Amino acid sequence: MTPVAAALTAMFAVPSLAMAEDAPVAAPAAETAPAVAETTAPVAAESDKVQLPAVKVQDRQVNEYKVETLQSPKYVKPLLDTPQNITVISKKVIEDQNVLTLRDILGNVPGITFGAGEGGGGYGDSISIRGYAGSNDVTTDGIRDSGQYTRSDPFNLESVEVVKGANSANSGAGAVGGTINLVSKTPKADQFARVSAGLGTDNYYRATVDVNQPVSDGIALRLNAMKHENDVPGRDVEKFDRWGIAPSVAFGLGGSTQFSLALFHQEDDNIPQYGVLFRNNRPVPGVDSSNYYGYSNLDTQEIRNTAVTGILDHKFNDALSLRNLSRVGRTTQFLIVDPPQGNVCLAAGQTVLGGTATCAAAGYTPSGPRGNVRDTVNEIVSNQTDLTWRTTLGGMTNALVTGVQLTRETFELEGGNTLRKTDGSPATLPVMDIYNPDHVYTGPANYFRTSKSEGEQKNAAIYISDTLDLTKQWAVTGGLRVERNEGSSTAYTVKTYTAPTGTNPTPDNSNLGSVTAKGAPAENEDTLFSYRAGVVFKPVETASIYVNYGNSETPSKASVNGSCTVVTTPPPTPPQNNANCNVDPEEARSYEIGAKWDLFDAKLQLTSAIFRIERTNFRVASADVTVPEQQLDGESRVKGFELGATGLITSKWSVFGSYAYLDSEIKRSVAKNATTPVVDTQKGQDLPNTPKNGFNLWTTYKLPLRLEVGYGAQYQGSVLPNNSATAPNNVRVDGYWVYKASLGWQASREFNLRLNLNNLTDEEYYTRVRGTGWATPGEGRQAVLTANYEF
Predict the structure, then answer these.
(1) DSSP one-letter code for 94
(2) Has residue 63 been placed in a domain?
(3) Which of 186, 375, 715, 767 could link 695 by a cystine bridge, Cβ 3.0 to 4.6 Å?
(4) pLDDT beneath 70, residues of the chain
(5) Pairing state between β 751-758 and 766-770
(6) Who's near 405: CB < 8 A, 6+ residues apart?
(7) Segment 635-648, tens digit of pLDDT
(8) SS (H, E, C) 30-64
(9) Structural domain range at position 256
(10) Rounded to two decimals, what is the model's pTM?
């Protein structure tokens, strides 16, 4: 805590001093408007007057870190007066830091962590918010983005909004720890163009364009495009390669009726990042963090993401307005992965690391999902309508938002394996040198399908939110949401390879990969009821104190990607105890008390919040062999506090920083219906992947000669890894500090250069940990030079 406390002291103690030293001092009133003195100077003749050349005046935003409002019409107040802890990462912060993936962008928000990116959801962004899973709580422009893939580029993002705490009333099913909303760029009324090109170490090449062009009164076109590639710093093999384009058009800008239509398309061709051998929550001794334990000539991650969005805004009058958003989207991801699972032996005769067997020889013997193929398709059709009514009731201003949302999602998954012989039998995988792995595969590679499944999710929701200003100092807000969530999962029977046995020496292995049967759908239907309430007190115009309370409900099938399990007849052996399709939704409650304060003519905002999230009944396996369904007996809670600072300390000094303290605990992880005593091995442990301390600071300062320097520091405390929720594990993964810096030069009004240095100390650290499997090393030191031209 010592370095964190020192950083916090510096961040929050400096502003008043800096403002006194650096801010311009207002002149006395008598000096600001001096009297016009009489003069006897001759007046120039008309013929002597000189016509000066026209001067183009550009209004440049000087406080681009501090965002005042959220995109959703459900939030009718500025952030200062919204009773919830919310962090908005602006486009300017993203550009100044040159962060590209969603994982790196969210590194600016302590309390958000990332898991190993595996399991039922597949490889991709596996997010936790305040200790609770948030992969299904990512939205784009308020529409849920359920695909499990890597969100890799911000070229079409205006900002990223992170709303903390249980938020089902606004965002729908789930949202226990919070929600993440990606805000897309839209056409504007003014003309501008920006072209950027970047060059850096580790084969970094990047080019982007952002052009906005009014074509007539009220009509404007905007085009964003990107091409990017780079090797992952500090790694031998992994790379990113992608391109994207996002054209949009808007009609009626500035009028009472506006309509915009936008297309987004991005294609990624990456090598998946699994990282290095990890055993007992530690890297295998002597292993270089750059080593690659997959097969570089086979492994691939191919993402295709397309969405079409139409938004209609109509203002009936000053009191009544309507917004309708419609989206059709499709996301595909094709994966071939070789995660580093298997036996690790440091020497013959020793025990396998993380296991109990005895080693016959030194080396890494791959096993598990090597060569696994996962081909997924996510599709969504969604429509959301919001009606906002602002009026005065008995001298009190009131803002009422009502809405309806209809969404249908589908999911297709085909699984298989490519490390097979021509007859479908598994290939023999060579033993790898632990310290110098040969990542080029030379054995047989033949793809055979091994599984096929489908999913469907339909959600219909109605909601209402009301904010009433009782006086100039007091306001209350509340919201209700009722939604019907219906989901189904269907598994197909696929013919797979059968090994010869003594009783079956010649099994039938013809038509491998063919579908032989379609299973009955496993269905889940729930009606969910979510609510929130808040009170705001404003002691002065520039500050607010608030109290917030809300809940969340999570059904057994909360995502179209996930599946629920039905009770089978006759029961399997051993007895089934994990069926959940007919189990009631999980519930959580969130309590928060906070304060916000705008300083320096509202240029800098300080925030603080104390919170508690209680998950009162999460699902756990039944402990009674005669009861096949899960029980809602699990309990956990997270409590803590957060501090934040965003905006301008002076006209030259910008800051974006925050600190989060999370005290998490699993209070119960076993069912109460045990026929024999069950030891609760997880009771009292931290929630998986939940650090107690997290800190982020990014600050820039403008120097003479049109120079600007930037400095950043990020800290994440130690965590228990993702698998600690399913197996006893008290070994924590070490925390880490990472530092970054930048140097910018505004060569002219149109042209500027920026140099970004990431991971200045080349710190070796590990993220996305699967304790007895793998962990991803953090990116090493990197330098990137970006040139920006605006016209």
Answers:
(1) H
(2) no
(3) 715
(4) 1-62, 117-122, 722-729
(5) unpaired
(6) 172, 382, 383, 384, 385, 459, 460, 461, 463, 483
(7) 999 999 999 999 99
(8) HHHCCCCCCCCCCCCCHHHCCCCCCCCCCCCCCCC
(9) 76-435+476-497+512-790
(10) 0.90
